[in-house]
């Protein structure tokens, strides 16, 4: 510290030195509170009115659901853990997992092609996304389930030459397999756009800087892309997964017994469709809650990982 700086910090001879504690200053962006006045929270009377109105409506709905015997809660309890219902629930989980797993792999490839500098690959990926997002998912599922109507036998061999291997299409593409194929193609088109949007959110300059410092493609994906893509991609990805748990209900038209088709079949026998629909609703809500908790856990894990970095 220079002599001039020391002199400026020392008090002048004869000058009074204040020993009072420094006064507290108001936070930035707020006006200081005058002495003797207390802060009063702003009142919202209309909020209380809306809360009371909402409580009355909910109480009326609860009373109607509980006291109306036509809801047949006894039937709901009887079939909630029915063997056929639980079997359909397992099929729904298998269809969802298969469609999302295959769709994620295909969607990653299509997203990479869509972002490719090759105009041919980018155009092919664009047409793929347009087609499979445009064709209704129920059409795609039924097409693959009944593929044997077009190709009774699938063969492998030399193009325009002899064939060596032959497969019965009905055995090769069973109804569950056909349903997974149809759901997977539809899901891959949506996931490709989700992944493409996440990758496009990363500024190109960061990738150029990573290459300039000698990072390998694997290091770029792990250290540059993943920390920025995951927070953007996880919410829409799980939205698609949760939507797929309910989209699987279209397989009722493809001779596949999932959760929805199971309760519909039971309801057709005992003519208790409404209670059976409540059973399906309960299990769909359970699946949604489980996936939502999984999403929350992954988001927190990603946030902690980003904080450590």
From TrEMBL:
SUPFAM superfamilies: MetI-like. The chain crosses the membrane at residues 48-66, 86-112, 124-147, 167-186, 276-298. Pfam families: BPD_transp_1 (PF00528). The keyword Cell membrane applies. GO terms for molecular function: transmembrane transporter activity. One of its GO terms (cellular component) is ATP-binding cassette (ABC) transporter complex. Keywords: Amino-acid transport, Cell membrane, Membrane, Transmembrane, Transmembrane helix, Transport. It is found in: Cell membrane. CDD domains: TM_PBP2 (cd06261). GO terms for biological process: amino acid transport. The keyword Membrane applies. Residues 89-295 form the ABC transmembrane type-1 domain. InterPro entries: AA_ABC_transptr_permease_3TM, ArtM/GltK/GlnP/TcyL/YhdX-like, MetI-like, MetI-like_sf. It is a multi-pass membrane protein. Belongs to the binding-protein-dependent transport system permease family. NCBIfam families: HEQRo_perm_3TM (TIGR01726). This is Polar amino acid transport system permease protein. It comes from Blastococcus colisei. The lineage of its organism: Bacteria, Bacillati, Actinomycetota, Actinomycetes, Geodermatophilales.
């Amino acid at each position: 510290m220079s002599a001039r700086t020391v002199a400026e910090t020392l008090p002048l001879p004869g000058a009074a030195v204040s020993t009072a504690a420094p006064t507290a200053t108001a936070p930035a962006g707020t006006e200081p509170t005058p002495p003797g006045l207390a802060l009063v929270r702003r009142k919202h009377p209309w909020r209380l009115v809306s809360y009371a109105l909402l409580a009355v409506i909910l109480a009326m709905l609860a009373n109607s659901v509980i006291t109306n015997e036509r809801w047949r809660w006894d039937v709901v309890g009887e079939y909630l853990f029915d063997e056929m219902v639980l079997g359909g629930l397992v099929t729904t989980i298998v269809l969802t997992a298969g469609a999302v797993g295959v769709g994620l792999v295909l969607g990653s490839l299509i997203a990479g092609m869509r972002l490719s500098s090759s105009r041919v690959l980018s155009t092919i990926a664009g047409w793929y996304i347009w087609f499979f997002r445009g064709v209704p998912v129920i059409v795609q599922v039924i097409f693959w389930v009944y593929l044997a109507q077009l190709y009774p036998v699938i063969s492998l061999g030399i193009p325009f030459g002899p064939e060596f291997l032959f497969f019965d299409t009905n055995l090769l593409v069973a109804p569950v397999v056909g349903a997974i194929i149809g759901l997977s193609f539809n899901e891959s088109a949506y996931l490709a756009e989700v992944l493409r949007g996440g990758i496009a959110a990363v500024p190109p300059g960061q990738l150029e800087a990573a290459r300039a410092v000698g990072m390998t493609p694997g290091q770029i994906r792990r250290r540059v892309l993943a920390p920025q893509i995951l927070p953007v991609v996880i919410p829409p990805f799980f939205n698609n997964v949760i939507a797929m748990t309910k989209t699987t209900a279209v397989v009722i038209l493809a001779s596949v017994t999932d959760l929805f088709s199971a309760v519909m079949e039971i309801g057709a026998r005992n003519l208790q469709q409404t209670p059976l629909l409540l059973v399906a609703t309960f299990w769909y809500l359970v699946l949604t809650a489980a996936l939502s908790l999984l999403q929350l856990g992954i988001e927190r894990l990603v946030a902690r990982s980003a904080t450590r970095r």
